[in-house]
Amino acid sequence: VLLYMRGDDQQQSGVFSYISAEQRVPQDHPLRPLRRMVDEVLAELSPRFTKMYAKRGRPSIAPEKLLRALLLQVLYTIRSERQLMEQLDYNMLYRWFVGLNMDDPIWDVTVFTKNRERLLKGDIAQAFFQKVLEQARAQSLLSEDHFTVDGTLIEAWAGQKSFQRKDQPPQPPEDGGSNPTVNFHGEKRSNQTHQSTTDPEAMLYRKSGGSESKLSYLGHVLMENRNGLVVDTRLTRATGTAERDAALDMAARIPGGTRQVTLGGDKNYDTRDFVNKLREAAVTPHVAQNQHERRTSAIDERTTRHEGYAISQRKRKRVEEIFGWIKTIAGLRKTRHRGKARVGWMFTFAAAAYNLVRMRNLAQAAA
């Protein structure tokens, strides 16, 4: 029989620790392969960072650390930059990933936000996204022939009360409050006559006939069909034609040549104009047929009789995994930023984060 004596519940903390954060993070922790891929991307972006900053002056937050911190916010669904700074103060794993020593002070949230704005002006999210894609291409993870396109609703950081008439001044709050009392009943509101005072670029939009209208943007992705990685992104204002316009814009950037390139999509893309423009661009439209009593599909047996069309219809549904991850994990179901430029920056950055996670999972599955 083993006997155990009672342990001592000492409350006094040690002054020194001889175990580094690097030693404390397990070798099989899922952040380790992400950190290796991210460090490779940031090393390639270093010359671009150098051009963004002055050669003299007060040192700012290193852009590498800032991007790693923003990546943590996406990966761990941290709802605000203020909370991100709080977690960086005491979370050893986060400090290790960002590259902070245990004694390094944490940045003021206002300073962090201002430095993030510098990355916005430098279009770093798109550059980061492209470098991640280069890694995927080097590992032969990307299809060069078969793609899927789709769009999703990103709810704006603006309330319905902010959607007011353009030809009238904003209604002041009543009784000294901060929120005006607005009655929308009986008032016809549209994007032509009304505009949000909180986020003027957001537009009132609804995805389907039975859904609620919300102030929103539209996020679009182009997915390659081999492994379901994002190869291009767009963020647009929410209009009825934005999905097809963005799809044509992204399809035009697909390298063609002598290969047969296919583009899958849902029924929203089944219009004669869209299908004809794809064919003019030497892209075979593999969009779902939108057939009912009052219309005829633009996709006929010339396309549907091929086995590849059925494969594209199965593969295209994987794009919903991308949107699901971006909305739930990356926190973009309702954006925390205002303005098309900022929301678009975060949408592209979230897509790059999704690709990193997907590439890590593919590598682990192949091992």
How would you describe this protein?
This protein has 367 residues and is of the alpha/beta class. Helices cover 42% and strands 13% of the residues. It contains 13 helices and eight strands. It has helices at residues 21-24, 31-52, 63-75, 81-90, 92-98, 109-121, 124-138, 242-251, 272-280, 301-304, 307-315, 319-328, 340-366; strands at residues 146-155, 163-165, 194-196, 203-205, 214-224, 230-237, 261-265, 283-287. The strands form two sheets. Strands 1, 4, 5, 6, 7 and 8 form a six-stranded mixed beta sheet that branches. Strands 2-3 form a two-stranded antiparallel sheet. Helix 2 packs across helix 7 and helix 7 (124-138) runs parallel beside helix 13 (340-366). 32% of the residues are buried.
The fraction of residues in strands falls at: 5-15%
Unreliable stretches (pLDDT < 50, length at least 5) are none
> What is the general shape?
globular
Structural class: alpha/beta
Task: Please give the alpha-carbon distance between the first and last residues.
Answer: 44 Å
Rg from C-alpha positions?
Answer: 25 Å
Largest sheet: 6 strands, mixed
Mean pLDDT: 90
In DSSP terms (H or I, runs of 4 or more residues), the helix count works out at 13
E-strand count: 8
Compressed to H and E, one letter per element, the order equals HHHHHHHEEEEEEHEHEHHHH
Q: Approximately how much helix is present in the residues?
A: 40-55%
